[in-house]
């Protein structure tokens, strides 16, 4: 069990090499947690992505947007000793929380986030090994630095580990 | 520019507050008639907040809540979100239906329908008052009911906005009954272009 929980908020990212740490983010709806892991160097990183494309005004250099946030997380992983060829990726979230008869493309933001992330990952030549995305419910995720396991919790559902 | 929102003028703020107060009062009367109990919508607060701060402001985290979300259609884009933490939505539905849902974790079809009506009512009063003041024609969509984690609901509602602004006009009011067993919040999210047209229309009227 991890002794230290590092909580990341919406649009933030965090990298850790401390094996007693788990990185956690709560209440993902249409947002997606992107989790990068180098199992040899034991470096783990998570980004809480909100939207697919940077609006160009993001001065905080955080991880709000898939197209800029995932590369930032990747660079931070490398700075912390991860080898690009060894990094594996797990993602969770990207739900469609709201449904309407007849539908509305505005409600598909979760799907669009997942698509954008998948395309950035392939540009960076990063390997997606597991995903728990889509559907219609919120998720809280916990990513263990020691094991690289991603625990996914949802209301009224059993805990899954990917 | 997004910075303009941060400098919401005194007049803009005052007019928005007046619109909210009027519609909150009408909603409270209608809700009281529906429930046969005194329902209050506490004095609304208006603030301009950075996008990233919104989920935390609304109570945040992964506790359960029931929400009613309605999209704005017509001359503004955005959405109205009613948020009832914990069992508040169950209690509200029980009050209106005059029954006791006990400890059930699932909303009944009737409860979902009743909460949708509450959403229709509150948003109709707000949007018609807003129309009176701005001349803009804005209608609510059909209500969407979600029972899930607070932060998952709030962040997803906020991100329905087609273009995520840096800052959001955030309006919050408390919906409560006399014994304070029902707690609810109303939030309004608009994108920057819609906010500009609303503020412009208010000022030039």
UniProtKB/TrEMBL annotation, chain A:
Its EC number is 3.5.1.44. One of its GO terms (molecular function) is protein-glutamine glutaminase activity. Coiled coil: none annotated. Keywords: Chemotaxis, Hydrolase. InterPro entries: CheD-like_sf, Chemorcpt_Glu_NH3ase_CheD, Cytotoxic_necrot_fac-like_cat. It holds the Pfam family CheD. It is an enzyme of class 3 (hydrolase). The keyword Repeat does not apply. GO terms for biological process: chemotaxis. It catalyses: L-glutaminyl-[protein] + H2O = L-glutamyl-[protein] + NH4(+). Belongs to the CheD family. HAMAP family: CheD. PANTHER family: CHEMORECEPTOR GLUTAMINE DEAMIDASE CHED-RELATED. Probably deamidates glutamine residues to glutamate on methyl-accepting chemotaxis receptors (MCPs), playing an important role in chemotaxis. This is Probable chemoreceptor glutamine deamidase CheD. It comes from Candidatus Aquicultor primus. The lineage of its organism: Bacteria, Bacillati, Actinomycetota, Candidatus Aquicultoria, Candidatus Aquicultorales. The gene is cheD.
TrEMBL record, chain B:
GO terms for molecular function: hydrolase activity. CDD domains: CheC-like. The keyword Metal-binding does not apply. It comes from the Bacteria. One of its GO terms (biological process) is chemotaxis. Keywords: Chemotaxis, Hydrolase. The keyword Hydrolase applies. Residues 67-151 form the Chemotaxis phosphatase CheX-like domain. Gene3D superfamilies: CheC-like. This is Chemotaxis phosphatase CheX-like domain-containing protein.
């Amino acid at each position: 069990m991890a002794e230290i929980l590092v909580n990341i908020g919406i649009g933030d990212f965090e990298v850790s090499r401390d094996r007693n740490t788990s990185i956690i983010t709560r209440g993902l709806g249409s947002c997606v947690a992107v989790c990068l892991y180098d199992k040899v160097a034991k470096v783990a990183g998570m980004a809480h992505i909100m939207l697919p494309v940077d609006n160009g005004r993001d001065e905080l250099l955080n991880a709000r947007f898939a197209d800029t946030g995932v590369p930032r997380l990747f660079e931070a992983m490398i700075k912390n000793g991860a080898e690009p060829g060894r990094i594996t990726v797990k993602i969770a979230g990207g739900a469609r929380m709201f449904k309407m008869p007849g539908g509305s493309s505005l409600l598909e933001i979760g799907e669009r986030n997942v698509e954008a992330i998948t395309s950035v990952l392939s540009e960076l030549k990063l390997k997606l090994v597991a995903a728990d995305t889509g559907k219609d419910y919120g998720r809280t995720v916990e990513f263990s630095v020691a094991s690289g396991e991603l625990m996914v919790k949802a209301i009224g559902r059993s805990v899954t580990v990917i | 520019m997004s910075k303009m929102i941060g400098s919401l003028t005194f007049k803009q703020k005052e007019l928005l507050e007046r619109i909210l107060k009027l519609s909150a009062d009408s909603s409270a009367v209608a809700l009281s008639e529906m429930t046969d109990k005194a329902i209050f919508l506490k004095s609304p607060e208006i603030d301009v907040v950075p996008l990233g701060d919104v989920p935390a402001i609304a109570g945040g985290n992964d506790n359960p809540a029931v929400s009613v979300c309605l999209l704005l259609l017509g001359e503004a884009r955005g959405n109205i979100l009613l948020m009832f933490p914990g069992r508040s939505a169950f209690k509200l539905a029980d009050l209106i239906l005059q029954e006791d849902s006990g400890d059930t974790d699932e909303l009944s079809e009737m409860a979902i329908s009743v909460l949708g009506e509450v959403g229709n009512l509150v948003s109709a009063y707000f949007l018609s008052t807003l129309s009176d003041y701005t001349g803009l024609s804005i209608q609510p969509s059909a209500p969407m009911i979600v029972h899930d984690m607070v932060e998952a609901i709030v962040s997803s509602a906020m991100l329905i906005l087609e273009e995520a602004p840096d800052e959001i006009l955030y309006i919050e009011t408390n919906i409560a009954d006399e014994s304070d067993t029902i707690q609810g919040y109303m939030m309004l999210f608009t994108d920057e272009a819609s906010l500009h047209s609303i503020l412009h229309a208010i000022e030039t009227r």
